[in-house]
Request: fold
Amino acid sequence: MKALMKLQRGEGFVELKEVEAPRPDADEVLIAVRRAGVCGTDIHILHDEFPKARPPFVLGHEFSGVVEEVGREVRGWKVGDRVVSETSAHFCGRCRFCQRGDTQICPEREAYGYVRNGAFAKYIVVKAKLLHRIPDSVSDSEAALSEPLAVCVHSAYHRTKVEPGDVALVTGPGAVGLIMFQVVKAAGAKVILCGMDSDRERLRLGAELGADRCVNVEREDLASIVMEMTEGYGVDKSYECAGAKGAVIDCLRLTRRGGTIVQVGLFGRPIEIPYEEIALKELSIIGCFAQNHDSWDPALRLLADRKVKTGPLVSAEYPLDRWKEAFERSERREGLKYLLYPIG
Reply:
């Protein structure tokens, strides 16, 4: 089968290779990949900017598919089931993090798509315990974005708890930001989504998807809008999804005293911020990088109930042999989300 692989450390070294199709072990299933999403992590891996990567491996960790074969010890799954999968291919199960269900921060965690072979291929093998059933009303393309949706659910419902009546700020209207604001709004909050001139089309989509206020920070006064909507207090919670220094500073100055900032975006470099604001305003700062088992079923219910829509985020779908085009368009920030589908 054809598979897109990171062959070794260093800039580049990503190639489409002919490899042998995997076979499932006793506790695994073989999944025929239907759609797989190009993520910012994949771009970082291409440029050797993701230190967790351990090549050689097949890229791709956001995907949907159909069960093709089940291992002899697998129960509850059959050929033809439509599924998505958690990304933690391995975790120890013994450490204090695993014991409380936080397998995503297990020191021994290995993930599909940057340690274990991922989904930019015709087939992927995963542990059966990681599978979740795709609701009948959800398409393969919509389901392929269930992993970033699960991250947003973990951020908004587990790492923090959105309360009805909250006012929240979401910075960065990329794919994660557009999913995040929908997750937060589904919990009963009012949401301010902000971006820049280059995000005009993304902000327009945010408005169509139901953001209470979309703000171009280069043309509007974000602070005035926030204070007007919060009676001068500031937002209750901020979700920083841009991975940009200016966005973090906006969160620090516009989150109310005693409020919460959730850092979801990654910067790829050190940044300098007015860290003292955390103490002066008694802010809570929470990080969120991935998802765990408890994030997935709520995420899929949000999709099934149409409280979160991922389909409008898909800008184009490409066969795997056109992966460079999808990567380049993602890197140039053209559109939002690009999906790959298998060949050969």
